[in-house]
Amino acid sequence: MAFLEINGIYKNFGKTEVLKGISFGMEKGEVLAIIGSSGSGKTTLLRCLNFLETPDSGNISINGETLFDAAEPPASDKDIRRKRLHFGLVFQSFNLFPQYTVLKNVSLAPELLRIKGQKLSKAEKNRVLKEIDENSRALLNTVGLSEKMFSYPCELSGGQQQRVAIARALALSPDILCFDEPTSALDPELTGEVLRVIRELKTTDRTMIVVTHEMNFARGVADKVIFMADGVIEEYGTPDEVFGNPKSEKTRSFLEKSLENP
Predict the structure, then answer these.
(1) Which residues, including other chains, have CB under 8 Å from residue 260's CB and lie 6 or more apart?
(2) 1-86+175-262 has CATH 3.40.50.300 classification
(3) pLDDT per residue over 196-238, tens digit each?
(4) pLDDT tens-digit readout, 122-153
């Protein structure tokens, strides 16, 4: 059984079919790159995994636990919040809280999860807050931003903001870290610093799904690659198979155009 199993995911928006039976699996510690043209369903797939959208059919399981089954009654909001913790999502547009420092942006979600609504003594609360603070500082060090922890988002470059967003997604220790075009909002000179962080995360055997338009990055970092077109998985395999010997004409055409217009 694969660590993550996706079976028969369909998603419609009105009469528009966006996902048309998506099925795949991935092992713990793998990096999966998802490539494809705009409108192919990549972002919708990530949003379904992170419970920001509800599939119309299919099921999702992780480490043997069924997180979603369209045949079952809808989950409660509490259950959805719990299941969402299995995934961390880094958005295209950072989505940082402008009123909080970098450190607070990273520590806020763990504080809400572990303290809000809990009956803790003052000593226990202080212990938890200290633990969260130490972990948040360590994560900022991991993404190379220790010196910026007391800065505000408006004082950071786009690349730095995205690195804060990565640290924030890591703060809840998700099983799978998802990236939705993490460099699409960045100037070319800032793209490298974000991709470098993702490469470094790979060395720690972190399980990741990266939707990206950076073909060289996908080929060099991913263990497996999915090419999506028109709401289906058109091609799936290792980087050498997908980039070096694509079987689908749609894949070949997409890669040729991508290489012509990097």
Answers:
(1) none
(2) yes
(3) 999 999 989 899 999 999 998 999 999 999 999 999 999 999 9
(4) 999 999 999 999 999 999 999 999 999 999 99
| Every domain of the chain and the residues it spans | 1-86+175-262, 99-173
Please spell the DSSP secondary structure of 159-202, one letter per residue: HHHHHHHHHHHHTT--SEEEEESTTTTS-HHHHHHHHHHHHHHH
Q: Give the span between the Cα atoms of 109 and 254, in whole angstroms.
A: 39
- The conformation of residue 76, written as its DSSP 8-state character, comes to P
- In angstroms, rounded to a whole number, what is the distance separating the alpha carbons of residues 57 and 175? 23
* Residue of 51, 43, 47, 4 whose CA lies nearest to 23: 4
Q: How far apart are CA 14 and CA 21, in angstroms?
A: 17
Statement: the pTM of the whole predicted model exceeds 0.85: yes
State both tokens at 83: 């299941």
* Whole-number pLDDT of residue 43: 94
Q: Distance from first CA to last CA of the chain, Å, rounded?
A: 37
Q: Measure Cα distances from 24 to 45, 146, 172, 184 in Å.
A: 12, 38, 25, 25
Question: Which structure tokens are listed for 146?
Answer: 């220790």
